[in-house]
Structure formats: C-alpha cells, structure tokens
Write a structure and sequence with these properties.
The protein has five helices and nine strands; from the N terminus they run E-E-H-E-H-E-E-H-E-E-E-E-H-H. By secondary structure, the chain is of the alpha+beta class. The radius of gyration is 48 Å and the shape is elongated.
Length: 241
C-alpha cells in the first residue's frame, strides 16, 4: 500500500514522502496512529495544506526529545534485583521497567522508545538504546546488581577494562633505541664537522712532502755543482803544469 508519511521514520522516509508499505503495517499502525495517510488524490491535496503545520510540529517534537536526552545522558541507571549464586535474575529487566524508572524522575520515555540489544536476565552492565525520534537517539548503560555495593564493583571493573593499558617494557625498550639513534646522529655531525680539518691536515702533509722533496733536490744540485767545480780546478792545475 502507498502512504504519505506524516512523521519521519529511519527506514521509511521523511515527512511528505510517498512510500510503499505492507498493508497490515499501514492499517494496524501507521494510519490509526495518524503517522501516515493513504496516498490517494484527496489525501495528497489535504497534505499540501497541512504540510507546513506538520513540519513545525515535527521540529517542536525534536527539540523536546533533545531536552529529554540531556536530562538522562549523564544518568547512572542502577537496578537492584534478586539473583541466584550464578547471577541469574529471578525475572528480568524489561523496557517497561526502564520506562517506569524514568517516569519516577518525571521523564516521559515510553517502552516503545527503549531498545534492548539483548534480554537482561543476569546481573551485569548492559547497553540500551533510547530513541525518542527518528533524528534523536542515544545509548545508555544500566547496571543490574544484587546490591549497591555489587553495582559499584561492576562499575569499577568496567572502568578498569575500558582504561587503555601501557606496556612498561615496551616504553623502556624505546629508550636505548633513542639513545643509540642520538649517538649515531652526534657521531655523524661530529664526523661532518671534523671533515674539513682532516682535509686540511692531509693538505698540510702533502705540502710538507713537496717542500722536503724540493729541499732534497736543491741539496743534490748543490753537491753536483761543487763536484764539477772541483773537477774543473783539477783540470786547470794539470794544464798549468
């Protein structure tokens, strides 16, 4: 069956959308609850006239839903129940029980607005979803225990398990690596810093060798000249004789 939505639905659509739904869903829920109209020519014309009013009403509902969520967002929900030694409850915690809990605090949350991800039949901490509107929802936790003391213990255990752990061994093992890295960097810098002086030292050594070789060559030349002069004198003396 085709219907015109008078409210926004997560899986169906927004106000004014024409959607196909199962006949039983339309006849038994949407149309009787005035959440939709049968999509015929007459109703389409009627919707055009009331569209603005419906949108304003929807916005008001959203604001009220958000205000309600603000009141319960930080709420610590605790249910004290009797249970067996293995934690099995004598009964269960239902959406109606949770709705009554909020009703005592003068917060209007219907059982149909409460979604349990799983049946609550044992002590423990459970996550539930509260949906007051297609655009307004939140997740809450409820603490089901046999006493207030047990509830506090369960809460502390949950906080410990959610706290991120730090591996001290891993943290300590990082220190030598950092030190070694820093040492390598320092040696590299030192090596780069000393490089010019090493080159200068090699240049000076080369210069000393060249100077020494030059001095040796001069001395050898001087000795050769002395020998030639002495030989020339001997020849001259022989001629005179």
């Amino acid at each position: 069956m085709e219907v015109i939505l008078l409210e926004s639905f997560n899986k169906l659509g927004n106000i004014g959308d024409v959607v196909n739904v199962k006949d039983g869903f339309a006849r038994n829920y949407l149309i009787p609850q005035k959440k939709a109209l049968r999509a015929n020519k007459e109703n389409k014309e009627h919707f055009t006239k009331i569209k603005k009013e419906l949108i304003e009403k929807n916005n008001k509902v959203i604001e009220e839903a958000r205000e309600s969520l603000k009141k319960i967002s930080g709420e610590e929900i605790i249910f004290i129940r009797n249970a067996s030694d293995n934690g099995q409850l004598y009964g269960s915690v239902s959406p109606k029980d949770i709705s009554s809990y909020f009703d005592q605090k003068k917060i209007d949350i219907k059982p149909s607005n409460i979604n349990l991800h799983s049946a609550i039949k044992k002590v423990g901490i459970y996550s539930i979803n509260i949906k007051l509107h297609a655009e307004v929802a939140c997740d809450l936790k409820i603490n089901v225990a046999t006493s207030q003391e047990s509830a506090n213990e369960q809460k502390n255990e949950l906080n410990k398990s959610n706290k991120p752990s730090v591996n001290i061994k891993d943290e300590e093992s990082k220190v030598p690596v950092d030190d070694e890295t820093n040492a390598l960097k320092k040696n590299e810098v030192k090596s780069k810093t000393n490089k010019p002086s090493d080159e200068k030292s090699r240049a000076n050594t080369k210069s000393d060798v060249l100077t020494k070789n030059e001095n040796t060559t001069v001395e050898e030349k001087s000795d050769k000249d002395d020998k030639e002069e002495h030989k020339s004198q001997e020849i001259s003396e022989k001629k005179e004789k």
